[in-house]
Amino acid sequence: MIEVLDQRTRFGTWWAKVTLLIDLLSGEIMTTTQIRALRLDDAHKLAPLIAENAQALRRGAPRRPDAYYAERILSDKTAEVLGAFEGDKLVGFAVFFDLPELITGLRIGQMDDIYVHPDHRNKGTGRKMIETLVSEGQNRGWLHLRWLVPGKNTPAVALYEKIAEPDHRKSYLIPIDRIAGD
């Protein structure tokens, strides 16, 4: 807080200090969301968000954070994970892949999952993660970034329709049960 006071009151007025303190107490000063690649040492921060996302999607998935699973994802050779931070707190993540595209010979980005904690939604965090992936895709020479969206997630679909075009493809799924192979 001292740094913020020094920056905001470099002209030294007492009133500016009082105004800043009121802003801080009332929540008027917003924290800046930082987007960066997650590292293995972020697993303990990622685990609770994975559990919350699983609960929201599957209703009945494990309720407790699984640090081992978060470590597996962050150690995966093909998956990459972006994190959205407000200060030191991880408030969202996006899992993506860099894939070859057969027809053009170029590469594409495939976002597998994006999640923002409910307390941090409607603040542009999801959009900022997608914008970061688009920028990364430009750096990597991707043809496009694509992702699959559950149609029932109306608020998310509304955002996606503002920033992307619907794809002409349909998605199909064949469940593969681990037990079936035994």
TrEMBL record:
Keyword ATP-binding appears in the UniProt entry: no
Organism domain of life: Bacteria
GO molecular function: acyltransferase activity, transferring groups other than amino-acyl groups
Residue ranges annotated for the N-acetyltransferase domain, each copy included: 33-182
Alphabetical keyword list: Acyltransferase, Transferase
Protein name (Swiss-Prot/TrEMBL): Acetyltransferase domain containing protein
